[in-house]
Amino acid sequence: MLLITCPWCGLRDETEFHPGGEAGRVRPHAPDQLDDTQWADFLFMRRNEKGLRSERWLHAAGCRRWFVITRDTITHEIIADDSDSLGASALRSDNGGAQ
Amino acid sequence: MSGRQRMRAADGGQIDRSRTLRFDFDGRSYCGHPGDTLASALLANGVRLVGRSFKYHRPRGILSAGAEEPNALVTLGVGGRAEPNTRATQIELFDGLVVRSQNAWPSLGFDVGAVNALLAPFFPAGFYYKTFIGGPKGAWTRFYEPLIRRMAGLGPAPTESDPDIYDKRHAHCDVLVVGAGPAGLAAARAAAAGGARVILIDERPRPGGSLLASTALIEKMTASAWASTEGEAFCAQPEAKLLSRTTAFGRYDHNLVMAVERLTDHDPALAGPRQRLWQIRARHVILATGAHEQPLLFGNNDRPGVMLASAGQSYARTYGVLAGRRIVVAANNDSAYEAARSHAEAGAEIAAIVDGRSAGSNGLASHHNAAIHRVLGRKHVSAVEIVEEGGRRQRISCDAVLMSGGWQPAVHLHCHAGGRTRYDDELGCFVPANTLPGVTSVGGCAGRFALSDCLADGHAAGAAAAADAGYPTSLAPISADRGEPWCSSTRAFQPDPPAKSFVDFQNDVTTADVDLAQREGFVSVEHLKRYTTTGMATDQGKLSNLNALSRMASLLGTAPGNVGTTTFRPPYTPVTLGTLAALDRGDLTAPIRTTPMHEWHVAHGGVFEDVGQWKRPWYYPRQGEAMDDAVRRECQAVRNAVGMFDASTLGKIDVRGPDAATFLNRIYTNAWSKLEVGRCRYGLMLSDDGMVMDDGVTIRTGPDRFLMTTTTGNAARVMEHLEDLLQTEWPGLRVYLTSVTEHWAASVVTGPNARKLLQKVVTGVDLSNEALPHLSFREGTIGGVPVRIYRISFTGELSYEVHVSAEHGLRIWESLFEAGQGLGLNPYGTEAMHVLRAEKGYIIIGQETDGTVTPHDLGLDWAIAKAKGDFIGKRSLGRPALAAPDRKQLVGLVPDDGRTLLEEGSQLTADDSTRTAVSMHGHITSAYWSTVTETPIALALLKGGRDRHGETVMARSAGRMVPCRVCAPIFYDSQGERVNA
Q: Would the pTM count as exceeding 0.90?
C-alpha cells in the first residue's frame, strides 16, 4: 500500500488516489493527419518500463487534482514528485482558444 | 483434579497451579491451569493424538509450541462461532473451552480414512494430475472430486453467520517492533527511551518469546523476569504501546504492517469485539520474529510423541509439562541440549542424545555421527531405531523424541514486500539478503541466534531507528551472562531417509515424493512446490520448505541456495475473514446513497435494487402482486395514462465558463455551440479509442452554462474523465466543473396525461407544445418552490423531468403524486423504465455497450457532427476495423413463438445445432416482456445485424434453442409522434 505525496494535500494513503498510467504521453496536435499506425501507437502503445517511471495520479478522494510522480516499478519506491508537470501535452497549440 | 494431569511436572512453569480450568476436547472433559495453551494442557493430560493427517489420515500429535504448528489443528467453538484449522499451540486455555479434532471419521482414535495410508502407493506426488485424467466422462466431477474432498479435508467452514463483532484500527508510529523476544524487547526498549512513538507487537499473552523457556541471566535477572520487567517498563512510556496476543501477518509497501489482535479469544467472558485488525504505518519497522526449529527426516517422524526440541523445552519450562518420561533427543546442532536439560531437570529420563555431528560441543551426546533411522510405535512413539555412520543400528525404547534439524529464520515479513533471501552455508538456512528502506531484521530472523547477539543487535537497531525519527538515546546496551551456544548444523550425518519420512506434515509430503518429483524433472523450486504441494498448506511450509529444498539440492548435487525458495506471501498465519471485513459488514459494507424521496418509496411498498451505491425503487407491487404483474401494470399506466419515476440518481455536472460550449464540442460527438439557451440535446461521449463511454441529455441553462446529465452508475467516471482533460490536455480552457448530482431531486412525469398533471400544480410556465416543445426547458414554481421543467423523454411518451433543490424533493414529488390522482397515475420503478426504453430502442450504457461498441454499431451516426473540429474519439472512428461490415450491430429480436422469454447475455447462433462448436453471431443485451407488442422482446448486438432484419437466429433460453426474428431495434411508435404530442 503506497504512501503518495499529493502536491496540494501532502502525504496520503494510496486508497485516496486513482492511477492514471504513464505520464508524458503526447496527444498529437492533428490526429486527422496521422496514418492508422501512428494513431494506434498513440492509443495503445506504452513503454511499460521496468525501473523508474513517470506516472500520473489523481487525488480522487481529496483535492481531485492530477499530478505526476516518479516511481520505481520494482521496489515501489517513489523517487520524486514532479508537481509542476501535469503529464500530458495540450491537444492544440493554441491550448484552448475557441475554434 | 490436577492429579489426572499425569504428564504435568511436580513444579515449575509459568502457570497458575492454584486454579483449575475445565475444557472439552472431542466431547471428553479435561483440566488445565491458567497460563496453559490447549496444546500444553492436552499434553499434561497425556493426550498425544490430536489430529489426523490431510491425505493418509495418519495419527498426528503436537509437533511445536507456536505459530508453525502443522499437525495440531482443531475447530474452535461451535455453530456460527466455529473456527476451523486453529493451532492448538496458540489457543489459550479458558474455563469451558470446547474444541473438536478434524479430518477423522467416525472418531479420532478409529478413523476409517486411515485406509488411505494402505493406499499410499496410489497417492504419490502429482496424483491429482495423473490418476483421474481419463476414465468415464464426468467421473472427475461426479465421483473422484467429491470423494477426495470428503476424505482429504481440513475442518469444515461454519454454515451459520458469525455472531461476533470485529474491529479495525489505523495507527502510525516512528518505530514498529514485531516480536517481543530478546531482540525485539531490546529494540523496543532502545527505541522508546528517547521518546519516539513505538509499537511493540507479540503473538503471545506476555512478552519474552524464547526467554520464557530460557535459563539465561540478563542484567542479573532470570530471562523471563527480565522480559516481564522490560515489558512493564516499556508500557510505562507515554508514547509506547504493547500489543500482546497480536500477530503481524503481512508487511506491505511503504511499511504498512497488518496485524490481528485477539481480544477475547482467551476469555469469552470479556465484552467487546473478538478481534481487531490493525493497519500500522511505521517510519521504521524492526523485525524480530525469531526462527523456527526444523524437523529431522527419519521414518515415522510424524508419530505423536515426536516433537521439536525447542517445543519440548518450552512445554517443560513455560508450562511445567513433560513431553515424555523417557526421552531420546536427536539433533544436528547445539540448541537441542538445552531441551534435554529442561526435561532432565523436570524429572524425565534422557535415554539417549543422538548427534549427527562428529562432536557435540558439550560432550553430552551418547551417540555421535548417528541419527534416528525410524520411529517405532503405532499411535505414539514406543522406541527409536538409530543408525551410526558405519551402519550399526541400535533400538532404544522411549516414549518421546525431541528433535532439532537446525533453525530457519522467520523471514516472512522481510520477504512480503521486496525482501530477498540467500542461503548461508555456515548456518544451514536462508537469511535476509538485501536491506530494505525503513526495515531492519534483528536476532533470530536475521540468522543471529546467540542471545548476546539478539540483545546487542536489537538495541542498536532500536536506537538507530529512533534517532532517525528524531529521538536519539544514550541508553546503555543490555548484558547477558552468555551467548547461547551455537554450532553449525550443515556437516552432520544424515542417512538416507526411509519411507514415511515426512517433509511436509500438513500436506502429507514425504521424501519419496520429493525424490519422485526430481526423477520426473520437476526440479525447479516452483515446480517442486506445485507438484508435491510442499509448503502449500495453511502453515505455508514453516517446517517443510527447508527440508524439501535441502533434499532436492542433495538429489541434484548442489547447494540449497541454488534451488532457491518460493515466494513468501501474506498472511503469516491464517486470518479469519471476519477480522478482515471488520466493521464493513451488512449495511456498512459500502456507503448507501438514497434520494430525497426514499422514504416515500419505502412507504409505498417499493422493492429496491442496488445501482452502484444507490438504492433505487425497482417496482411497486400492490398487495399480493407478483413482480411481472406489477411491472406490466406500471408500463401500461405510462403508455395509457401517466407514470412517475424518481430520476434523482442521474449524474449531474454543472459545466460553467466562457469556453463551456467549446469544451462540450470536444468531449461530445455532436455540436453544442449553436444550442440555444433553454434547449436540451442528447450527447454521446466516446473514449479515445472511439468506443461509446457515456450518454445523456445536456441542457443549456445560460450563455456560459450547461447542466450535463450522465448515466447513474457512470457519474464519477465521467467527472474524472472530464477533469483529466481539463487539467492536463486543455488547461487553457476557462471551464469549471461541479458535481451537482445530489443538489437536485428529479421527478419524471411521463405519459399521455403528463401535461394535464403538471398543469394542475405548475405555475409560471406555458406547458403547451408550442411554448415548451420536446428538448426544451423552462423555470417555474410548484407551491411556491422554484422548479426547472425539462421536456425530455426516456419512455417515448410525452414526458417531463421536474428538477428541484434536493431539500424540496420529497415535497414536490408528493405534490405531483397528489395532482395525478384521477389521471391514472402510477409510480414506476427501474424495471418498467428499462422495458419502456427498450420498446423505443433507447440504449443503456453498460447494457447495450461494453467498451467495444461504437456509435455506428448502435445506429447513432446521426449524433456525430461531421462539420465541427476534432473531438475525443473522432480519429479512431476512421480506423478500418471500426467500419467493418461484420461488426456487431444493434438489432431487435422477437421469438417466433411469441411466448418464450429471452435471456440477457445469451449467445446468438445461426442454426439450432447442438454441437458444442458453433460460431457465435452475437448476444442479447436486454430482454423483457413488452406490453405494447404483447410478446417478449430483446435488444441484441448481432454481426452485420443491420442488414439481417427479417432473418431468423437462434438464442439459447432455459436450455433450449429459441428461433427469433431479427428486426429494427424499435418496437413502438417508430415515427416518434407520441413524444412530440
A: no
